[in-house]
Each structure stands twice: as structure tokens, then as C-alpha cells.
Amino acid sequence: MELENLSVMHSNALNKSIVTINSKRKTGYVYRFGQMTKNRYRCCRCRELGKQRCINIIDGTVTGRKDPEADHHPDCEPLALSGVVATELDRSMRSEVRKIFFR
Ligand SMILES: [Zn+2]
Q: How far does residue 60's CA lie from ligand 1's centre (Å)?
């Protein structure tokens, strides 16, 4: 798994605990994974659908032989990157505002 397939995003709590994995089947679409423990991340959509789909990320790289795109809930579809980026920009801005006003 190459590094550019993975980016770290802000979660609702405004810390860096969401990663996105580029879909290979659908260009311009990504899967979002939320951090559970230091190296363990769980698919956000699968969690909503009641399925546990976890990946391990160590030093910015997805480890293990299993394709991070495989074995999701049947209704778990990747999200359009454009929408994810818009959300991320909004969160980054709020995070910046927090740094200014709450330091
Ligand atoms: Zn999933």
C-alpha cells in the first residue's frame, strides 16, 4: 500500500484521527476509517451499518496482506473525495479558529 493512498483527516472531535483510503475500484472515491487505538482504524460507514471492518496502519502505511477495500459491509460504498475534502476544509478551519481563540 503506497503512502499517497492514505491521508489523515480531522474527526468530529477536531483531532487527527480519521484516515481516508483511496478506492481502487472507484476513482475519486475514498473509504473513511476512524482511529480506535494507536495503530487500529475502523471503517466509519461499516460501523454505522453494524459491521466491524478494521485495518492496521503503522507509520502511515496500511499493514497486512488483506486489501483495505475488501470485506466491507455490502452496503458500504466509498465516499466521493470532493465531499470528504469539503468536510475536511471546514474542520481544518474550525480547528484553526480554536487554536486562535482557545490557546
Ligand atoms: Zn466499510
A: 19
